[in-house]
Amino acid sequence: MTNYKLSLENISKSFGTLKANDQVTLDVRPGTVHAVLGENGAGKSTLMNILYGLYRPDEGRILVDGQAVAIDSPRAALAAGIGMVHQHFMLVGQLTVTENIVLGMKGQGLKLDLATHVRKISELSQSFGFEIDPEAEVMKLPIGMQQRVEILKLLYHNAEVLILDEPTSVLTPNETGPFFELLERLKSAGKTIIFITHKLDEVMTIADDVTVMQDGKVMASLPKSDTDPANLARIMVGREVLFQVKRSSHASGPVVLRLADVSASNTRGLTALDQVTLEVRAGEVFGIAGVDGNGQAELAETIAGLRPVDSGRIFLSDSDITQTSISDRADKLGIAYVPEDRHRDGIVLDESVAQNMILRTYDRAPFARFGFFNPGAIRDHAERLTSAFNVRMQSVDQEIRFLSGGNQQKVILARELEGEPKVLIVAQPTKGLDVGAIEFVQQQILVQRDRGVAVLYISTELEHLLDVCDRVGVLFSGKLMDTVDSSEATPERVGLLMAGVAA
Amino acid sequence: MIISRRNLLIATSVVAGAGAMGRPVFAADFKAAAVLPGSITDQAFNQVVYEGLEAAKSKLGIEVAFSEKVKQADQVSAMSDYARRGYNMVIGAGGEFTAAAQRVAKQHPEVLVAVINGAPTEGIATVNYNNPQFGYVLGYIGGKMTKSGKAGMVCAQEIKAFVDIAAGFKKGWAKGGGSGEVTLTYTDDWDDVAKAKEATLNLINQGADVVVPYLDNGIVGVVQAAEEKGVWATGVITDLGKSSPKANLASTVLDFAAATATAIELGMKGELAREDYKFAMGSAAGYMGTINDAVPADVKAEAMAIVDQMTAGTFEM
Amino acid sequence: MERVYRVLFHLRSVWAIIAALAVGSILILAAGSNPIEAYYTLFQGAFFDYWGFASTLVKMCPLLLAGLAVVLPLRAGLFNIGAEGQIYIGALFATVVALYLPGVPGPLHIIMCTLAGALGGALWALIPALLKAYQGINEIIVTLLLNFVALHFVSFMVSGPMMEPGAPYPYSPEIPDTLFLPHVLPRTDAHFGVLVGVVIAIAMYAVFKRGVFGFTLATVGRNPDAARYAGMSVRRHIIVSFLIAGACAGLAGTFEVLGHRYRLFHAFSQGYGYDGIVVAFLAGLSPLFAIFSALFIGGLRSGANMMQRAMGIETTVVEAIQGLVILFVAVSLAFRYKVTEIGKAIARRGELEQALEDKTSDGKE
Hints:
The complex is a heterotrimer of chains A (503), B (317) and C (365).
Chain A: E1 6-15, E2 18-28, E3 33-37, H1 44-51, E4 59-64, E5 67-69, H2 74-79, E6 82-85, H3 97-102, H4 114-128, H5 143-156, E7 161-165, H6 173-188, E8 192-197, H7 200-206, E9 209-214, E10 217-223, H8 229-237, E11 255-265, E12 271-281, E13 284-289, H9 296-304, E14 311-316, E15 319-320, H10 326-331, E16 335-338, H11 342-346, H12 353-357, E17 368-369, E18 372-373, H13 375-388, H14 405-418, E19 423-427, H15 435-451, E20 454-458, H16 462-468, E21 471-476, E22 479-485, H17 491-498
Parallel strand pairs in A: 3-8, 3-9, 6-7, 7-8, 13-20, 13-21, 16-19, 19-20
Antiparallel strand pairs in A: 1-2, 1-4, 4-5, 9-10, 11-12, 11-14, 14-15, 17-18, 21-22
Chain B: H1 6-10, E1 12-13, E2 31-35, H2 45-60, E3 63-67, H3 75-84, E4 89-93, H4 98-107, E5 112-116, E6 125-129, H5 131-145, E7 151-155, H6 160-176, E8 182-186, H7 193-205, E9 210-214, H8 219-229, E10 232-235, H9 240-243, E11 248-254, H10 256-268, E12 276-279, E13 286-291, H11 297-312
Helix pairs in contact in B: 2-10, 3-4, 5-6, 5-11, 7-8
Chain C: H1 2-10, H2 12-30, H3 35-47, H4 50-75, H5 83-100, H6 106-135, H7 139-159, H8 193-210, H9 212-222, H10 224-229, H11 234-261, H12 272-282, H13 287-311, H14 315-334, H15 341-357
Helix pairs in contact in C: 2-3, 2-14, 3-4, 3-13, 4-8, 4-11, 4-12, 4-13, 5-6, 5-7, 5-11, 5-12, 6-7, 6-11, 8-9, 8-13, 12-13, 13-14
C-alpha cells in the first residue's frame, strides 16, 4: 500500500508506428506540485490526455489513492477527482463565470438555482483569493483571469488533482508571480497539482517533484531538492550521439549577416526577441540553442523577412535590409530559409513536388512567361533537383503530402540551396527525421559552409548543433544569453545557459 | 359568363380609321396565348382572364396557352416566346404589360398583341372599360353614404385603368355629397393580403369610411380591414356583395373573362384592330353588382338611372 | 471495386439530380400529370427545341457568370455570396452609361457599357474584400447584406431618378437599340453575352490550370503561411479575387440589360446571384464544368416553363422540383466533403482567417 495520491503504471500508447508513451510510470505525492518536464513532442500531452480520459492507453493502469480506476471520459476523470486545464480554454465567452462553471453539471433538476451557485462560487473564490466576480461575462475577463475561472471550475466540481497544461504559456511575466502564489495556496489546501512545462526555471520555482520525459519515455523522476537546472537540462536534451559528421576545419570570412539590437513580438503581441545582437560570418555555421519557445521561431522569421522588427536593424554585408520584403530577401539578396514547421510554412501539401520546387521562384523565367507556366521547364527543374538530392518519390507530379518527412525536407533544401544563397537560415531541420535523413541534412549544411555561405542553424537538439556548428549562441526568454565556441560548448555549460543561468 | 355578339356592338373603337387587321384565319389554325402576372387560382383578375381564355377555347375550338406568375422583368421574353412559336394572338393580362407588349409588337409585326385593361398604346390592341364610369357610380353611392366625407382607394401600382377609375370616383363622390378628400395609395403588390390590409387600416385611421380596393388577392386584406373597423368597402372588379355582403356598400363587376373571350373572338375573325376598345357600363362584360340594403331606395334609384344613361351612351360626367 | 465506387462517387451530383427528379415525379403525379411525359417535355423543351434552347441560353448567361463569381474567390477559400448585388450594381452602371452617354458610336458604346458594368460589379465586391483583408470582417455576411443594399438602391434609382416617365412599374427608359447585343441564334433572345461567359470560363480554367495567378491564388487558399513565405500577399489576393469575381457578376447584370431586357428593372435578377452558388458547387468549383452546370440549371428553368405550358402543371409544382434539385445537389456535396474540392475550400477559409489574424508581415507589401 502506497501513500501516493495518483500513480500511473506502465502506461503505453501508440499512434500508428509512433510510440507516444512507452511504459510510463509516474507517482504523485498528495499535496505537492509535480512538474512534468520535456520538450515539445516528448509525450507529456498524450500522457495527460490519457489521465483526463481523452485517450485510452494501450496498456497500463491508473491508481487514485491506491485504487485502480477506469478513466474513459473526462466525466469519469472528474468523478475520480482529476481535472485538467488545457492550453486552450474550454469556456463560453458570452456566459458569465457562474454559468460557465455550472455548465454541464448534473443533478440540477429542471430549474437552475443560479443565485445559490453565485454565492457558493463567490465563497470558494474568496477562500483561495481568486478575486473573481462570479457574475462577470467571461469574454470580458483578461486571459489570466479566464485561466482562474478554469481552475475554479475544477475546484467547484471537487477535483483533488489539477492537471495544468503549460499554464504559464498564456501569461505575461507579470501574471506569472501571482499565479504561482495561487498554486501555493491550492497546495496548502491539500490539492495535488500536475504541472506540465518545458521551462526549467518554472520547475525550480514551483515544483516539489520533477519527472523528465523524452521521446515518450520517463528519463528521470526525482525530488527537486536532488537536482539543479544544469542536471535537468542535460537530462532533457541529452541523448547519445548517433553519428559523427566529418567537419573540416577552415577559416571563416567576413561578417555577412548582422543583427543589431533586434526586438520582435510573437503572434500574441508579446515580446519574443529582446535586443538580440549577433554576427554570422561567411563560411561559418552559427548555432542557436535553447529550449523550445524562447524566441527561436521569431528569430528565424525576422531574418527571413516574415516578421517585422519592433526595433533594431538587420544588415546584410553592411547594407540595411530591415525593411526589405521577404521575396526580395530571398530573390535578390540570397537569403535562403528552411522553416521550422515544414507543413505550415515550407511546402504546400496539396501541390505537386514540382510546384513546391518553385514555390519561391514561381514567377520567374523559364518557369513562367506572360503569366502562364511552362510545365516542361518546371518538370525538368524538379527532375534535376530531386535526382541531385536523391528525393524518393513516384514522380515530380505527385502531391508532396505523400512523401516522407525526410524527403519533404530534401525538397525544401534543394529549393533553398539552388540559388546559391549567401545566407542560409535553417530552423529545426532535423525534427521528426530518421537518422539517415538527419545525416544528409547536416552534410548539406556543411557543404554550404564550405562554399562560403553564412549559416544560421537553429535547433533544440544540442548534440546536433555541437556536431556541425562553429559557434553556438543560446536564446533564453528572447535574449541571447551568450555565445560560446563549439570546442568549449559542453552540454553542461550550454544547458545552464538554456536554463537562463548566465555563466 | 355569357359571351354574346352584343359585346361587339358595345365595344366601340376609339381610334377611328385604323387599317383592317390581318387576314381572318380558320379556327383550327388560330392560336392564342395569355401571359398572366399572377396565379390562375387567385380567385381574382388572373383567374378570370384565364377563364376567359378557356371559354374562348371551348367556344371557338382554338388552341390556347398561358404562362402564369410572370414577373415584370420577364414579360418581354414570355410574350415574344409565344410570338415566335407561331401564336397569332398574344395577350398580356393587365395594364402593366403595356410597355412589354409594345416592344413585342414591334419585333413581331405579324402577331396581334393585346393588353387587357391596358392604356391606349400605338401598335397594340387594348381591351378596356370606360373606367371613369364605373368609378363614378361607386363614388356617387359612396358620397351619399359617407359620414366622414373621406374615402380611400388601394391599388398595387399606378396603372392607367386605376387612375381613370379614381378620377371617375372622385367626381361621383363630390356629386353624391362627399365633402372630403379621396386618398389613393399603392402597395406595390397585387396579391399581398397583409400589405393591403395595413394600407387600408392607414386610410381608415386617416378618416376614410369608404375604401375601394383595386387589387387581385390583396382585396381580401382590404375587406378584412373594412370589416374590423366597420367601414364600407366597394368592389370594382368582382362583386363584394357575394363574398362579403356586410362590408359591401356597392360593387361593379368588370367581367374580364367576357372581355378576354370577346377580344379573342374578334382577333380570330380578324376584326380586332390595333387600337383601344372600351366596354361601357351596363355591357355584358361590365355591369352593376350588388348594392347593400342599407343604401336608401332613392339613392339606389338615382344610381341605376346613371347606369342606364351610361349604357345608352348619353351620360355626361 | 474501389474504382467503381470512386466513379460513382464523383458522379454524385448526377445521382442527386436523378433522385430529386424522382421525388419531383411524386409531386407531378399529385398534380395529376404523367411524370415521364412531363420530364420529357422539360428536357425536350430546354435542349432539343430551337426556341427552348435559345431561352435556356438566355438564362445560362447570368447563371454562368454568377457561378464564376463564386468559383474564383473559393479558390482562395473565400465565399462570395454577393454576386446578386454585384449583378445589380453592374447592371446599373451599364444602364447609366447606356442612357446618359448619347452620341457615342454603337459598337464603342457597347464596349463602354460592358466595361462600366464590370467596373460596377468589381467596385461593389471591393467593399467586402477590403473589410476582409484589413479588418478580418466575415465576407459571407458582408456580401450577403450588400445584396439587399444593391437591390434597394437599384429599386430607388428606377423608381425615382431613372424611372421611365409614366411607367406602371419601376423601370428605366429603354436603352437605344444600337446597344442591343447581337444574337447568337437568329430570331431568338439568345444573345452574345453567353459566348462572353463561356470564353471567360475557359480563360479562368486555363489560368487555374496553367496560370501563375491560378497557382498563387490556390496557394494562398491552401496554405497562407507558405504563401507569405513564398512572397505572395494574402491581402492582395483577397482583393484581386473579389475584384475579378465582382466584374464577372457585373457582366452578368450588364448582359441582362444589353442583351435581353433592354432596360433596367426593379428586382430583375430574381436570384441569379444565389443560383450562381448552386452552379459553382454543382460544377465542383471547376470553371470548365460551370459551363455545363449553368447550362443545366438554365435548362431546368426554361424547360420548367415549357413543362408548365404544355402539361398545365402549376408553377408551384415546377418551383418545388427546382428547389428539390438544388437541395439534393447540396446534400450530395456534403458526402465525404473532406476529400472534395469543396471540403478543401471550406478548410482553406479557416486557415486564411488564421493567417489574417497573425500580426506578422504580409508578404510583398
